Amino acid sequence: MPKVKVDGVEIEVPAGATVLQACELAGKEIPRFCYHERLSIAGNCRMCLVEVKPGPPKPQASCALPAADNQEIFTTTPMVKHAREGMMEFLLINHPLDCPICDQGGECDLQDQSIAYGRGQSRFQENKRAVTEKYMGPIVKTVMTRCIQCTRCVRFAEEVAGVEEIGAIGRGEDMQITSYLEHAVTSELSGNVVDLCPVGALTSKPYAFEARPWELKKTLTIDVMDAVGTNIRLDSRGRQVLRCLPRINEDVNEEWATDKTRHAVDGLVRRRLDKPYVRRDGKLVPATWEEAFAAIAAVNAGSSVAAVAGDLVDCETMYAAKALVTAMGGSLLEGRQTGMDYDTSSLAAVNFNTTIAGTEEADAILLVGTNLRWEAPLVNTRIRKAIKKGAKVFAIGPEVDLTYRVEWLGNDLSVLGKLPKNVADAFKGAERPIMIVGGAALRSAHGAALKLAKSLKLVRDGWNGFNVVHFSAARMGGLMLGYAQKGGIADVVAGKPKLVFFLGADEVDFSKFDKSFKVYVGHHGDHGAHHADVILPGASYAEKSGTWVNLEGRVQRGERAVFPPGDAREDWTIFRALSEKLGQTLPFDTIEELRADMGRDVPALAKEGLASFEWNPPALSDTAVGTIDAYPIKDFYLTNAICRASPTMQLCSAELLHGDELAEAAE
Amino acid sequence: MAEAPQIPDEAETRARWGGFAWTTENAVKAKEIIGRYPAGRQASASLPLLDLAQRQVGAETKTQGWLPVPVIEFVARELDMPYMRVFEVVTFYTMFNLVPVGRYHVQVCGTTPCMLRGSDDVLAACKNHGLAKGKTTPDGLFTLTEVECLGACTNAPMVQINDDNYEDLDYDSMTAILEALARGETPKPGPQIDRQTSAPEGGPTTLKEMVSENHDYRGEWA
Ligand code: SF4
Ligand code: FES
Ligand code: FES
After folding, report:
1. Which residue, A68, A137, A577, A661, is most buried by CB atoms nearer than 10 A?
2. What is the Å distance from ligand 1's center to A217 Cα?
3. Domain containing B148 — which CATH number?
4. Mutation test of the interface with chain B: which of A169, A174, A187, choosing the one with the most B Cβ atoms within 10 A?
5. What is the pLDDT of residues A133-188, one digit of tens each?
6. ipTM for the predicted complex
7. Is B1 on the interface with A (CB under 8 A)?
């Protein structure tokens, strides 16, 4: 480990560290534009100059210089200050003075650093360069005159998103950043370049001119668009969430978020259920809470009651509903709306055991029936990292573009029983092999996958390579709370419950429930609400404090950013109030009491962090027959009620997924 | 950026060039070029392949050739590279034309040494012959481009026409060259004055005895 001196203070830095990292370790702030921890080093902005001895008597770009033993680094000498001021002046030569109309204002690296290193006025007499706007798709707005050619966006597209569609064309002063032929960038992660861009060249299109950063209330919470559990910050003003940004969590999302996570928030103010409804003469009519509760009480369901949980709900909601159903004497609980009935006797067998971060370490990867890019985009990026370290990826299922090279083994599940030789060899030689089983294979090949996991020794000392990937945020929490019947939702149907609570469940085949009295507790007027007999307006993920468990069993808690609209209430309070009307008053009056109760029932839900499930796979039929014909997600941008209500997501779907069809129709 | 080359109408170029493929001869060459680089490093072959493609387009259109987008994409596929990466290369190097050029691509150097030595006269000769910067003459013969230093400053001013340099020009010699080309002749490339390559004008000025024999100067060193 090299020892270096930073401004006279001696520190030891990890081998392979750069001078910039050494300075940071020593607590020095180094200005930078092109350097980013998660991207390769470009060294083209020259803002990070420092003086280094021994070495040529000139400033050095610290981000691209390895720290070496006995180096002396100076970050505050006149030479350094002068050099950085010079760089800043060059950068500002062509940068427009349009901060008042720039969306980056207030959170702009260039603005901040020019306060420290900028001159009061420009000495530049010539014309400034102007660059035309480039089209990059529905998410990213461009004002390319502001670009300082740091190439962060180019490197992100290539290295993290795996979609090499952003590049720098031309040369010298005429260099321009653009998407290929100005077509939309076909990445589900494109919004991240907005955060990466240190200036206002790439800004968020849906959020354009909405607000200034300092007017926004910032709430830390958890995303529910998929089961990754991206840590997010919701920025709101008044009653409206204006934008969603990722927070850094190395174990979960690093610092990325998908476009769905970021931009489905405009669906939160559309198609909302803001008052209770009761069906009268076949029509849903607005009602008061009293009337709605009375209608439910009138069913006189006795113990013939069930609850079906949707994809987005938090554990508190599910717990409250479960408590009510149990208090009434019922036991039918299910969360797998579309009819999945995989075995849940051991949660480890349906968990992502390697953990999201652990995936990076894998050296042989077998995907079974999962389109990871859509089901868990931020697990997909980890696989890209694993590949960079040398992992080999094989996959069973219909071929899709996962942004990396995959050896496809066809879509016949029987392959699980007899792996081709090269695959078997790759796994034999692997130290940290993993298998990722998706929903498409879980139904008919769960047992076969477990058997293969055993024969490939995926579970070994300190390593569990068996993974199941879910894509609904409520799934793991639901399974922990017992929202699973042996035969799946078919068991619920067979139980012929008189009264069924649908907790934001919109993907259910409601025709099967036409004999039941359907109560929809949710926030969006989607399929579930259309079929309901009574609608009780609830809160979306942004409007309640809740607990979610992500696909690796990580218990995470989010806070409320805004209040639910109109008469809508937090879901657990709805069940608490209803229970009183049904004569089964639930024993909690505050969310803390509810959580305490929930923690007593399921201890893992009581504390945040990774829940541990003991590896104890069930014995299942281990022959896999049949083929995987399609993956469960048909349209990445429209997977739940919130994004279906979001104009931005509709646009993304239309343009990025159905753009070809549109173009054909236009012709 | 008003001068930046615009990509000609996409639908039209796609219709015309979408089916581009190597000629049998070029296919052999392309294979040889790719073979020069280690496996997995075929991206290194992008420059020579693009040049080959541009020349093939030139041969097909009887011009100096250019690189329509579908041809760029063809090369990218040949090398298993993303389109964007090859497109970046094409836009970086001025030797690749993003718009069609004429049969003779007249590239006049206007950088300081050439300018001091009279590149303005060379440009004037072009102008009076009907050439305009960035344009192709209506007969499709000439395209005029002003370029930066082409590395032949000792023979300034100079132009590069297709693969040849014409050096030590003035208004008259430039006019003569253009006229000869228009007549279908090939003027002699190189210096247009009495000078061998970049040696002194009018013959050697030093080591004169060396011209005819291997002269031994040692006895003359006092
Ligand atoms: S657009 Fe932004 S991120 Fe991309 S190169 Fe320009 S300044 Fe950097
Ligand atoms: S941060 Fe070092 S050169 Fe840009
Ligand atoms: S300046 Fe014209 S060739 Fe160098």
Report:
1. A137
2. 27
3. 3.40.30.10
4. A169
5. 999 999 999 999 999 999 999 999 999 999 999 999 999 888 999 999 888 999 99
6. 0.89
7. yes
